[in-house]
Amino acid sequence: MTAFESSSGHTLNGDRRLSKLDRVRWFLVNWMNNARATSNLDPALELARFRTENTATVWSTIDAAASPARRLCDLFWLTLPWRQIARELNGSVKALEVGCGTGRYGILAQDCLGDAFGGYVGLDVARHAEWDSHRSDPKIELVCADSGSTARYLSGANLIITQSALEHFEEDLLFFRQIADYVATANRPMIQFHLMPSAGCLTTFPWHGVRQYTPRTISRITRLFGKETSKRLYFLGSLECNRIHRRYITYPWLLRRGDQRRKRLDAYDRELRRAVERDDIAPKGNEACFHALVLQSRLTRDVFAA
Fold first, then answer.
1. In-domain check, residue 92
2. pLDDT tens digits, one per residue of 99-154
């Protein structure tokens, strides 16, 4: 019998309807899994802060009602060094996204890469109505499949991405093991970007998915990859962004007052921007709003190098 391959070691999934007892258990097992966040780290894993100094031109292009985590994630995607990514991947980027939802990040990659966009395959466990609008694009393929089937779709991919998906995979280590095997045998340049909830999301996104992530639990993932892969974990946002989320979303939801973002949109947008700026200047220790894991394999140069 194959061992269960999860970085959190449990199967409680907040996406399902949990009993009151299981809701308590979900909090407790994740609280314990998030403890000792910076102990027993992969020595090859670099920890870094994502800075938002150059985001003034893209801030207004993101939905003003997006959650703090979603806003930070979109800032990350929109300010990636796409030209350097294309250069390191030999001028043609073929992307695979697992847990793709509507496929919006495949379209973002297509827009950012231009002629260097070589194609995109998006996998999701559920079909989305928005998929129909991409049927005529020969470079976009959207497929119903789960993360355990990832190996079937890896051939040819040199950019592998997830956005707010890993926390929903009951066997996230199985997912990464498939990719690690592919990286080890493909013998060519490859880049991965995985954006995932931090420990702070235990109380900002209660009963969401299976787990949150810390540098310690992410090290369980990065140890699957060999010396050909550089490993960096970015902290996106910090205490102030988490406070904004709780004030406008979590607490009103728990009190059954409804989400306050669109009800106070101007104030929310203004306060969130200040929170992002304050977190840039004075982040709170190891607290993050979200994480971005970057894995670069067999590249001649770090794509983030100046």
1. yes
2. 999 999 999 999 999 999 999 999 999 999 999 999 999 999 999 999 999 999 99
Burial 273-283 (b: 16+ CB within 10 A, else e): bebbebbbeeb
Measure Cα distances from 163 to 26, 51, 70 in Å: 22, 19, 9
Give the contacts of 169 (CB within 8 A, at least 6 positions apart): 99, 147, 175, 210
Any domain includes 20: no
For the full predicted model, state whether its pTM sits above 0.90.
yes
**Residue 108 in domain:** yes
In sequence order, the β-bridge partners of residue 234 are: 48, 292
The CATH code of the domain that includes 54 is 3.40.50.150
Are 19 and 6 contacting, i.e. CB atoms less than 8 angstroms apart?
no
Does 7 map to a domain? no
Range of the domain at 180: 45-297
Contact 93, 157 (CB under 8 A): no
Amino acid identity, position 122: G
Total domain count, the chain: 1
Proportion of the chain in helix, strand, coil states, percent, rounded to 5: 40, 20, 40
